[in-house]
């Protein structure tokens, strides 16, 4: 029987879809959340300046020395507090989990009213806290302020394209080469760009801050004050330090509209590199597709024709992959764990796919802080139904009889491991007094979502999956397992998995750099069109690599394809972890044990989930391939 292939009509449809996806990929800035309405101000209206956690950035050596963030109102910084104490702003679940701690401030900004040399407050920073602040300055920590949802930024120039862009955040201080005590920034020149809607209303479309270090001396009875001090502000540990915090505000008209105000923040990534990444991935896919097509169109087609030949004069003994037809559908060892992994892989696949589609359609805006994390968490919980359904159905198809056992394993295995690692990371954040430590109320809320929504959905899915008709094999399974001959070295488990994993990793490693750069350096990631295409390429590459190696194993009379398809596809997670190690030595220089635990703890979680996702994709592709080829041959 000849296998079906894409005909001209379907090929044209596929090309049309690909062209449409490429067009969407280029619309990098068209993702604004429709539900966020612009805020119109009138002349003199109060404009709130909110403060967020201080986050680490690159130091003078272009290295990241810490991944710990600190609350703006941490007592060791001694920043000015507003009257009545700081009030916390409303934050989403994802924003809190991502480490945002947003509060009001004592800055007074009024629409279109410039101000010069305004004293915020005068603080005494004890000598015992000076080393802590100086250490954060030398580690490149940044202020993070927000005005009308826009982050305060500094103008920087991209090295490759020499293009100007807004870099989120500005330095806590600065240091010069060979300087023992760094400068502390205590004066801020705030430039707010506004767009005129009509003769009465105005909108904020940009925020720039230029920090300065000034050892300003204010006198109580002086009628006018000056911020023209030339001596920089240094915090010495030998004595207390009198610090005067000052600021100036300037309003500048801009032609930018409110709808495009984020464009200036989103030019840090060179699009040519992304296109190179996409072309690189596409070449790998075409190479694998050509190999797979060669096998399916020539070798496999000839095998099926020969196996189904009715010529009795040329009867010969079975050989190749037909020889193991009686064992290829034998249930694997520890199939209950395989069923759980497959169900969790389905859950992750639908979560990632739905999140990317929502982001691609423009419903995840950077102005809605934490929306991406919130969407991923909620979708993961909702798709617990898929995890239970597919786990139970696979388990029952393999001959499993205990529904209760598979339900417990599905609800606790992957989520439980990730939750344990997250608690370890959170304990390290708490021990380091970092603001990124999730509060107890947030953790309780996540637990409630898990137990109240996710687990019931998983149980319901398992019930329906277990009741669904099982997948019966197309050929009869022998009672006695066939002996497996000695395999060549390149088809043994470790070499074959390493070969399969490197091809999958090669299709995504450039995009992986941008994602890690965005996470650890607190950059805004926005190219969801490219990310969606890379995900599609990842799925196709993983499926093709696994099918190829599964076919080679069957031709070598090795029918143990179930687990092998999982770790052959999932081996790319090992390369992702190794890339994380390379990224650590090339871009990071973490000084504290807590930072090391946090970085490698998150890398472990990501690689575990990546293994589950790709392993499930590989298994499903191999299973469909095997059922198709064995249902196409005649078995006596």
Automatic annotation (TrEMBL):
One of its GO terms (cellular component) is membrane. The chain crosses the membrane at residues 275-297, 340-363, 375-395, 407-432, 444-466, 497-520, 526-554, 566-585, 597-626. Residues 1-30 form the signal peptide. It is found in: Membrane. The keyword Signal applies. GO terms for biological process: protein localization to membrane; vacuolar transport. It holds the Pfam family EMP70. Belongs to the nonaspanin (TM9SF) (TC 9.A.2) family. PANTHER family: TRANSMEMBRANE 9 SUPERFAMILY MEMBER 2, TRANSMEMBRANE 9 SUPERFAMILY PROTEIN. This is Transmembrane 9 superfamily member. It comes from Coemansia pectinata.
């Amino acid at each position: 029987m000849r296998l079906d292939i894409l005909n001209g009509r379907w090929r044209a449809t596929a090309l049309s879809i690909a062209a449409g996806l490429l067009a969407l990929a280029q619309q990098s800035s068209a993702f604004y959340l429709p539900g966020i309405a612009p805020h119109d101000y009138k002349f003199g209206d109060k404009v709130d300046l909110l403060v967020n956690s201080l986050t680490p950035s690159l130091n003078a050596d272009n290295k990241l020395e810490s991944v710990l963030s600190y609350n703006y109102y941490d007592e060791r910084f001694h920043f000015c507090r507003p009257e009545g104490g700081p009030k916390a702003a409303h934050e989403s679940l994802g924003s809190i989990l991502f480490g945002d701690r947003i509060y009001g401030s004592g800055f007074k900004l009024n629409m279109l009213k410039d101000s010069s040399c305004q004293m915020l407050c005068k603080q005494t920073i004890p000598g015992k806290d000076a080393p802590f602040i100086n250490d954060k300055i030398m580690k490149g920590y940044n202020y993070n302020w927000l005005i009308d949802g826009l982050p305060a930024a500094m103008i920087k120039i991209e090295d490759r394209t020499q293009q100007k862009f807004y870099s989120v955040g500005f330095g806590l201080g600065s240091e010069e080469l060979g300087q023992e005590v760094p400068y502390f920034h205590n004066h801020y020149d705030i430039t707010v760009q506004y767009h005129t809607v009509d003769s009465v209303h105005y909108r904020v479309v940009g925020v720039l801050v230029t920090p300065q270090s000034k050892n300003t001396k204010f006198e109580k009875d002086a009628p006018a004050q000056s911020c023209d001090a030339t001596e920089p502000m240094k915090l010495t540990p030998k004595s207390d330090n009198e610090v005067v915090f000052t600021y100036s505000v300037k309003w500048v008209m801009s032609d930018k509209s409110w709808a495009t105000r984020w464009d200036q923040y989103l030019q840090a990534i060179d699009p040519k590199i992304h296109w190179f990444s996409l072309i690189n991935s596409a070449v790998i896919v075409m190479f694998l597709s050509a190999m797979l097509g060669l096998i399916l169109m020539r070798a496999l087609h000839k095998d099926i024709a020969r196996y189904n030949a009715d010529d009795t004069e040329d009867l010969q003994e079975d050989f190749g992959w037909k020889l193991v037809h009686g064992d290829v559908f034998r249930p694997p060892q520890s199939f209950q764990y395989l069923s759980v992994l497959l169900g969790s892989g389905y859950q992750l696949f639908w979560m990632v796919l739905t999140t990317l589609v929502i982001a691609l359609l423009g419903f995840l805006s950077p102005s809605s802080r934490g929306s991406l994390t919130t969407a991923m968490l909620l979708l993961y919980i909702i798709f617990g139904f898929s995890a239970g359904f597919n786990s139970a159905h696979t388990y029952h198809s393999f001959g499993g009889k205990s529904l209760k056992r598979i339900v417990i394993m599905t609800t606790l295995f992957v989520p439980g491991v990730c939750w344990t690692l997250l608690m370890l990371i959170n304990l390290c954040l708490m021990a380091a007094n970092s603001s990124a430590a999730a509060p107890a109320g947030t953790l309780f809320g996540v637990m409630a979502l898990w137990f109240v929504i996710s687990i019931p959905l998983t149980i319901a899915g398992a019930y329906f999956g277990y009741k669904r008709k099982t997948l019966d094999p197309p050929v009869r399974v022998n009672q006695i397992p066939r002996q497996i001959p000695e395999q060549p070295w390149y088809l043994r488990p470790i070499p074959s998995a390493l070969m399969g994993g490197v091809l999958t990793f090669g299709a995504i490693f450039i995009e992986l750099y941008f994602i890690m750069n965005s996470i650890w350096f607190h950059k805004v990631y926005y190219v969801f069109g490219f990310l969606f295409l890379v995900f599609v390429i990842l799925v196709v590459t993983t499926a093709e690599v696994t099918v190829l190696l599964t076919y080679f194993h069957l031709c070598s009379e090795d029918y143990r394809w179930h687990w092998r398809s999982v770790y052959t596809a999932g081996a790319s997670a090992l390369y992702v972890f190794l890339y994380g190690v390379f990224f650590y030595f090339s871009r990071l220089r973490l000084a504290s044990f807590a930072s090391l635990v946090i970085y490698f703890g998150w890398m472990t979680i990501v690689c575990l989930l990546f293994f589950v996702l790709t392993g499930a994709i590989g298994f499903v592709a191999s299973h469909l391939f095997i059922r198709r080829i064995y249902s196409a041959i005649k078995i006596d």
